[in-house]
Amino acid sequence: MSIPYAFVKALRGKPSRLDKSSRVPKEQANYLLKKNHMQGHYLGDCLDSSRWGSMTTVMYEMSIKKLIFFIQSWTRQNQGNFQNLWHEKKINELYTKFELPYMHKESCLGENHEETILDLKGRLRCAYKNDIRFKPSFVIHYSLFDEELNMNRTYFFEDEPHSPLPDDAWDEVTGDILPEYEKEFLKYEEELERFKNEEKNFVVTDFCYSIISEKGTVLPLETIIRRLNLRPESNKIYCREGHFSGSCKKLNKLSKEERETYDITGFCPGHIEPYNYTEFPFDGWTLAFYVQKWYEQLPNGDSPWFDKEKN
Known about the structure:
The chain contains 9 helices and 14 strands. By secondary structure, it is of the alpha+beta class. A hairpin with a 4-residue loop joins strand 6 (139-146) and strand 7 (151-158). The model has no long low-confidence stretch (mean pLDDT 89).
């Protein structure tokens, strides 16, 4: 079905049964969260009455977690009956096929990546591995959550010594190193020589771990909404002077590395702040179908609300 259900309802002259008065979407969402105002109403109707709309997308003035809280409130207000209040229609009345946003492909895209493995969640992953050698005295690593792999991962690389000297450390006439930099330059040369002579005997086995398919696994509602959401979850905000980045007004929020950079440049490195909006390429009635499919993954409503791996 290409035409949004909310538009079809409007064409047929079937307005929402929900009280909207003159409230804007954010006010409507707050109104519905109070005093059982969602009791007896379809989730699709509640969601659709709380969003802004354009020709192609709808937007909620809620973060992903606040949107989930809104849905949780609807289930509490309709406790014991909400399974019958997802939507006015059944999914198969409007769609021939309706699936959760699983990651799925026929095989790994890497060349000669043929071996596979099932992880503890039941996801089919690529098991291709490659041994990488590093110079042990110069190897550094960092860990982060990989969105594409949906897992924490550690990355290794070599940190080759770089000259710490400024461009004006040499005499403009003779080209010789200035006396005040000789000791520092000698130390750098010794470190560089040690780097060149050290053997690569630190071995790291790097696995591809690309997700090939997670169909048949249970997706948290947070993961489903995150994949459907067209908006970024956070923004980088700069302390500005006019149109340019200026001095930082939130020094206590800077990390050690950010503060070191700021002490050198004098410019705000930016602050990550949550983006409290979500946007989807379909109306609230369709979003209700996704919530229904999420709920029905496990019996007794045991499908997880939040992604523990992400959090």
